[in-house]
Amino acid sequence: MQELVVLNPVAKINPLRFDPAARPRDLRNLKVAMLWNSKAGGDVALRRIGEKIKTEIGAEVDIEFVQDDHPSAMSTLQRLADSCDAVIGASAD
Question: What are the residue boundaries of the structural domains of the chain, listed by start?
Answer without folding.
Answer: 31-90
